[in-house]
Amino acid sequence: MVRYRRSLVPGASYFFTVALRDRHARVLTDHVELLRQSVHEVRSAMPFGIVAMTILPEHFHAVWTLPFDDAAYASRLSRIKARFGDLLVASGVPVRRNRRGERLLWQRRFWEHTNCDDEDLRRHVDYCHYNPVKHGWALRPVDWPYSSIHRHIRLGWCTADWAADPGDSAGGDRHEP
Q1: Adjacent-strand bridge partners of 49
Q2: CA 22, 144, 164, 169: dihedral to nearest 10 degrees?
């Protein structure tokens, strides 16, 4: 089995991309409340801060900050993925399995990046919030309902017109998470 080297910095902020196996599915937004419940349950058991998060139909991006003595983000992601699968099945959504009985819902791997400074963190928060525009799901970041940008606006970290120009890949008046 291939062992991937992952950055494990206790208390760090990390950016993630986690995708479904079927990149044409709409499972995450069609069942967004089940994904939110999964995240909530895992956060209750294994705390972490959500700096930013955007859920698209077949993948999500997140920026999390872990507790100062903890770097176990892979365990958290694994538990979220498993719990979401459990909740989908319990709600009657069919989820295919392979011959070993493993659900064929999520891609096995995920992409992770350790944010190295405040500017790096800001760029990854911007990336999360702008991603629905990049993929054509919204004209402006504020138009996408499954994004932490709405919390950032409420807290005054950015304005509702942030990155409103579709030609601007993430400019405008920036927020401070």
Answers
A1: 65
A2: -20
Please give the backbone phi and psi of residue 99, each rounded to the nearest 5 degrees, phi first. Answer: -65, -20
Known catalytic residues are 146
Tell me the whole-structure pTM to 2 decimals: 0.88
The domain locations on the chain are 13-154
pLDDT at res. 10: 86
Residue with tokens 């902020």: 13
Q: 13-154 adopts what CATH topology?
A: Alpha-Beta Plaits (3.30.70)
> Does residue 3 surpass a pLDDT of 90?
no
End-to-end CA distance of the chain: 38
| Secondary element (H or E) of residue 129 | helix 118-134
Cα torsion for 153, 154, 155, 157, to the nearest 10°?
A: 10
